[in-house]
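Quick one: co-fold with flavin mononucleotide.
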Amino acid sequence: MKTRITQLLGIEYPIFQAAMSWASSNAPLVIAVSEAGGLGVLAAGPMRPHDFSSVLENIKTHTKKPYGVNIPLNNPRAPELLEIAYNARIPVMVASQGGPKEQLPRFRAIGTKWLHVVASVEHAKKAEAAGVDALVVDGAEAGGHPPASQVTALVLVRRVVKEVKLPVVASGGAADGAGIAALLALGAEAVQLGTRFIATPEASVHEKYKHAVLAADVQDTTLVGPRNLPIRLLRNSFTEKFHASSAMDQEALYKSASLKAAALEGDVANGKVEAGQSAGLVTDIVPAGELVKRLAAELDEARRRLAAL
Ligand SMILES: Cc1cc2nc3c(=O)[nH]c(=O)nc-3n(C[C@H](O)[C@H](O)[C@H](O)COP(=O)(O)O)c2cc1C
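Sure, here it is.
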């Protein structure tokens, strides 16, 4: 299947494994996805510079296929992480949270394709004007940071596709080939899946985190945090306490809980268990490479089913 995204990046399938702090802050998941023909994306956000360097080396040793790196540009460690990514001549940057203008020219000069994560029409236009190669558009279903506007991928992706000329990667709510086909039908030229890839042996989160995703149904997530920057989490003791607290207590509570506690220590009751609504569509743990192949086969099946209607 050829789209502007598969051609731009040189990947076989229009399928990305989304950047996920901790879950994809390690080499095995990224290697498995890229080797299988999708785009594996390393989440550099929570990583120490030294670990980031050695994980990049590991990825480069184990796959010659394209892979991506996500750096949140507003991260206090971003300058160091960007320097390491530049020296490693990463093939694909998936930048989030911050403007691309400052870094874009030098990464372009070494051949890096720069994709920018946006969650509104306004930011999509800004990123296009700045000269990025493609956009990743997050809809409200997404785990992690969905748009504050809470506009769903079904509506936002369609709106952005009509508004920009750049190719778009749709993000949020897809967990199987039918979901990928739906987002491609809107005009997206690839689809990224986060939550689905948590349920793989390669995702570097605690087993309890993976099982919490498997156990969740579609209504089991909720938004917490500042109104202009909410995060989508699985409901647990922490989210219940958060919603039962006053605005002032919410702020302290929000700071006291962490994704790290859930992801690394397995505290899925009191930690922040980031996951999308698509958790309700995930029912099994599958090796990541096998998952990419399965998603591609399901995508073909969905296209055939639609064509036969
Ligand atoms: C556990 C988790 C951690 C995430 N961490 C990041 C991150 O570090 N950087 C980023 O740009 N997006 C992050 N996201 C958002 C994903 O890249 C992606 O937009 C989202 O997972 C897509 O929605 P889905 O989960 O329904 O597939 C995270 C999502 C999850 C579920």
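If it helps, The chain has a mean pLDDT of 97.
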